[in-house]
Specification:
In chain A, 67% of the residues lie in helices and 0% in strands. By secondary structure, chain A is mainly α. By secondary structure, chain B is an all-alpha fold. The relative contact order of chain B is 0.10. Classes of the chains: A mainly alpha, B mainly alpha. The interface between A and B is large, with 83 and 70 residues. The structure holds protoporphyrin IX containing FE (HEM) and copper (II) ion. The site of copper (II) ion has 5 residues of chain A, from α7.
Chain lengths: 529, 282
């Protein structure tokens, strides 16, 4: 049974009109994936600049560059831009490129919706970045925008609320699209339990997104009405409760952190077997582990609120539930290690990032476990220890997995190999500077340095200096990545890539499609035996 | 999988979506200005809404044309079904946030405000629902369940029945009955909205119950208002479907747009039952 796909285009390699309108009007999953990836990388650089502004201030104790109010704007916007502008859209970009290729689909299920999901993001980014320039500046309430702080800020807070609404809508639409594509567009024979893990992790991530983005939207809508329409959701004088905001926010927020890592797990689960030249160890246990992480992620949110005050039974519940997540996470790490065990491994850049990921992400997982122990968390809450924890899982976890995925798939996307030597440099520089930046933060946090404060006591000076140096090094290393990416994509340099440049890679895009993958791939759906 | 159609329709590049983004930019930036006392803001919001309406009309117009032109087969149909189901699930979660807020205040926040911890601050605050909180002194009357709200329940439930009868008629090819019962459904929706508008007026002018009446007013108007907004959308969608029925669209075996709107309408219906029980009644 071979299928002819009426793509609505001419059937041969017809490309749409050049120029900007191609990108504005496109309904092609590859174009849209590319847009997502460039957008998110731009946001990574913007958010990175904010981070460097933070680190410049913290290089020395005392106030050097910024007013405290502006410093808080920097940390807030850094968080919001990185989470919603860089990491999440980057994974959606990968989903756009890879999900149809890996399941043998002609395109995404809803091509026009796909376009709109992307083109909402520049709007949200404009609102967010633009909020720096309105009276009072951007919101300074932290990326967690806790009430009552967030019920007090100026117009910048309103812009952030609307930006979050729009990014939420974009995520929901994108997820509906991805879920439908996975459920309905798989090639004949591609049963659910034969899907590549990247597809599986995105299926579950999309479900999480649809479940929790609306909850965030509800929370910020109540924030908006508290700010402007006299409601009292988060105001004790009117019978409401600011703590309720934290509960609703973290009901969204904790699944959100898994939204940012599960597709990364997916990428790592493609890269490790490919470069170990062995099938993934424990495929179905990986699937079930991912699913149980998703389920558990709904019942651990209050581990962010141990210091807020809770009944003891609540504390114990959230503590044990949180620790329980370590079990499926551990299953994943062990499966990756076992996949490599006695494999004939080679260490091209994607594999370097993947192995690096395992080391450094696992450290972040351990610090998470430490934070989950409530008596310890009482000491560490809102210190740099937490900052260290989530940068280990988000930068060395999510971002490194994105880099691994980029180097892994860019030959398929462009038909050219990236510069292997520069790629290795990028890895080592990133890895070293990442640790120089964030490892000292563990010590700072254990010693009691609070996060989100522009000044600090003298005894913290040494480690802060090191962290700032590391941060600038890390930032510069990403300029190297920009150059590597430009070279292989826009400039079209690099040796030609064959259909299957990684001999261990065995998913459909490598086995069935040439490099670069044609503009319309799988016009005929492949049939899996 | 062998029985599904073999052609998946991937549409041509389209100009409409960028209008949607422009609309969102106008609406968000305009609203932020408007809320902060910047006069032109409101006009920018209205311009944004107009652009959005234009974009929806053109985009959905394309979809309708493609559908009537026979571009969609079984395979696309399944996509639409999944898409609509997940969309409704996202709406369920949106309402869940507001219902969660209601339960949280009623079960935790308000009792806590009346607990011994807060006696020093507010010695004579009685933690009873409904409440406008310890500081509000403006007396108000809560909304009774058995007047208009009960009537509204009846209206929405009947509209669920009429839309189902319309669906049966469509499947049996009885076009006149289809149009008639769609008309009933739209009329019931509109009546519901009129009643709700009346109820809001009553709340403001007779009961002294406002959006700013502490947490009771907040949850009452947020939940009913958000629901009313969905009824408005649902009624608009039903009207479009009615117009399409009159234009001779839909076939007995192929009419997912109709079903999608009916699903949506039932969803709005079920949410109302939750509202009736937890906001008005208990
Ligand atoms: C083994 C798994 C994990 C455990 C047990 C864990 C536990 C925790 C705990 C208890 C906190 C609260 C610390 C505090 O505020 O005092 C926390 C914070 C955080 N975690 Fe994790 N975590 C884990 C994995 C992850 C992953 C995979 C991510 C993201 C990719 C992540 C992102 C974050 C973020 C962003 C915060 C800080 C939120 C904020 O206050 O701004 N965590 N984690
Ligand atoms: Cu968490």
């Amino acid at each position: 049974m071979s299928a002819v796909i009426d793509s609505g285009h001419a059937h041969d390699e017809h490309r749409p009109d050049g120029g900007i309108m191609r990108w504005v009007t496109t309904t092609n999953h590859k174009d849209i994936g590319t847009l997502y990836l460039w957008f998110s990388f731009t946001m990574l650089l913007v958010g990175g600049m904010l981070a460097l502004a933070i680190r410049a201030e913290l290089f020395q104790p005392g106030l050097q560059f910024w007013h405290p109010e502006f410093f808080n704007q920097l940390t807030t916007m850094h968080g919001l831009i990185m989470v919603f502008g860089a990491i999440m859209p980057a994974f959606v970009g990968f989903a756009n490129w890879q999900v149809p290729l890996m399941i043998g689909a002609p395109d995404m299920a809803f091509a026009r919706l796909n376009n709109w999901s992307f083109w909402m993001l520049p709007v949200a980014a404009t609102l967010l970045v633009g909020s720096f320039f309105v009276p009072g500046g951007a919101t300074a309430a932290g990326w967690t925008i806790y009430a009552p702080l967030s019920t007090q800020m100026g117009p910048g807070m309103d812009l952030a609320i609307f930006a979050l609404h729009i990014m939420g809508a974009s995520s929901i639409m994108g997820s509906i699209n991805i879920i439908t594509t996975i459920l309905n567009m798989r090639a004949p024979g591609m049963t659910l339990l034969r899907m590549p893990l990247f597809v599986w992790t995105w299926l579950i991530t999309a479900y999480l997104l649809i479940a929790v983005m609306p909850v965030l939207a509800g929370a910020i809508t109540m924030l908006l009405t508290d700010r402007h329409f006299g409601t009292s959701f988060f105001n004790a004088a009117g019978g409401g409760d600011p703590v309720m905001f934290q509960h609703i926010f973290w009901f969204f927020g904790h699944p959100e952190v898994y939204i940012m890592i599960l597709p990364g797990f997916g990428i790592i689960s493609q890269v490790i077997p490919a470069f170990s030249r062995k099938p993934l160890f424990g495929y179905s246990s990986m699937v079930y582990a991912t699913a149980s992480i998703a389920v558990l992620s709904f019942i651990v949110w209050a581990h962010h609120m141990f210091t807020v005050g809770m009944p003891t039974a609540g504390i114990l519940f959230f503590m044990y539930a949180t620790v329980l997540i370590a079990v499926p996470t551990g299953v994943k790490v062990f499966n990756w290690l076992t996949t490599m065990w006695r494999g004939s491994m080679s260490f091209e850049t994607p594999m370097l990032f993947a192995v690096g990921f395992i080391f450094v992400f696992t450290m972040g997982g351990f610090t998470g476990l430490i934070l989950a122990i409530m008596p310890i968390d009482i000491q560490l809450q809102d210190t740099y220890y937490v900052v260290a924890h989530f940068h280990y899982v988000l930068v060395a976890g999510s971002l490194f997995s994105l880099f691994a995925g980029f180097y892994f798939w860019v030959p398929k996307w462009t038909g050219r190999m990236y510069d292997e030597k520069l790629g290795k440099w990028h890895f080592w520089l990133s890895m070293i500077f990442f640790n120089v930046t964030f490892f000292p933060m563990h010590f700072l946090g254990l010693a009691g340095m609070p996060r989100r404060i522009p000044d600090y006591a003298l005894q913290f000076a040494g480690f802060n200096e090191i962290a700032s140096i590391g941060a600038f090094g890390f930032g510069l290393s990403q300029i190297l990545f920009l150059w590597i990416a430009l070279k292989v994509t826009v400039l079209g340099q690099g040796e030609k890539a064959g259909q299957r440049p990684w001999e261990g890679a065995d998913t459909l895009e490598w086995t069935h499609l040439p490099s670069p993958a044609p503009y319309h791939s799988f016009d005929e759906q492949p049939v899996l035996g | 999988m062998s029985d599904r159609a073999q052609h998946y329709y991937v549409p041509q590049p389209s100009h409409w979506m960028i209008f949607g983004s422009a609309a969102l930019l106008c609406m968000a930036a305009g609203a932020a200005g408007w809320l902060n006392g910047w006069e032109p803001g409101r006009y920018i919001v209205f311009a944004g809404l107009a652009i959005l309406a234009f974009m929806m009309a053109r985009w959905f117009g394309d979809v309708v044309r493609e559908s009537e032109g026979g571009k969609y087969g079984r395979w696309e149909d399944v996509s639409f079904r999944w898409g609509m189901s997940w969309f409704i699930f996202s709406e369920v979660m949106f309402f869940a946030a507001f219902f969660g807020a209601l339960y949280y205040t009623r079960l935790l926040a308000v009792p806590d405000l009346g607990s011994i911890d807060n006696k020093l601050l507010w010695p004579d605050f009685a933690a009873q629902w409904p409440t406008a909180g310890p500081v509000f002194k403006d007396p108000f009357t809560p909304m009774a369940a058995w007047g208009i709200p009960a009537l509204n329940t009846l209206l929405l439930l009947s509209s669920g029945v009429t839309v189902t009868i319309a669906h049966w008629a469509l499947k049996e090819g009885k076009r006149a009955q289809l149009a008639l019962f769609m008309l009933f459904t739209v009329a019931l929706g509109v009546t519901f909205l009129c009643f709700q508008a009346y109820e809001y007026g009553h709340a403001y002018s007779d009961l002294n119950l406002k959006l700013s009446t502490g947490v009771y007013g907040s949850t009452f108007f947020m939940l009913t208002g958000f629901h009313g907004f969905h009824v408005t959308l649902g009624t608009l969608m039903l009207t479009v479907i009615l117009a399409r029925c009159l234009a001779g669209h839909f076939k007995p075996e192929n009419h997912f747009a109709f079903e999608a709107v009916a699903w949506y309408w039932h969803f709005v219906d079920v949410v109302w039952l939750g509202l009736f029980i937890f906001v008005y009644w208990l």
